[in-house]
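so my prof wants the structure for this chain in the tokens format not the other one, which i didnt know existed until like an hour ago. anyway here's the sequence
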Amino acid sequence: MQNKKFIIVASGDFQNKSINHSEIDFICACDGGYKYLEKLNIEPDLALGDFDSLGFVPKCKEVIKLNTNKDETDLFSAINEGITRGFDCFEIYGATGKREAHTFANFQILLYLKRLNCKATFINGKNRYFCLSNETMNLNYKKGYISIFSLTPKSIVTLENLKYNLHLHKLLNYIPLGIDNEFINKESTIKVISGAILVIVEPLD
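here's what i got, hopefully its the right format
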């Protein structure tokens, strides 16, 4: 049975020519992300934000207008709206690029969702961004780059079948040891024994 996804399109970089979604998925336009969906002729189920980036309040099936003076970012509010509606699987477009402060804040959101036992992926073109914690993941990419960064003070990680492998290695959140590793046309494995890491996959195939 297919899991329902809460799909959010935010106003950061958007390099996708389409969005893979089904009728059971819920699509949320987060502020300026509404323009991206409009270009793809996709009508969102919800438009949410203070709409300062968009410049107007869109007409939509459902609209949640946020105050411009608020503590949470629009994307964080959209995430919490999805959680309130019972979703635990998130696919998020437009979460990186443009403003570096927002990109960094959004990486924190990945850890937030992981700690709530939710599955979440940022998508920008072919690139994927996600968080792993106390788990193992296999990846099937022929070529490209993969970078890992500890989101906690330290993480114990094993990497297999990559250009540079690690075995029970301690990653620290202030040393960028895990940047620009490479796929070698084998199924690769990431094992996070403890801690939490940000994974950035940049496939070339």
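also thought this was worth mentioning. DSSP finds three helices and 14 strands in the chain.
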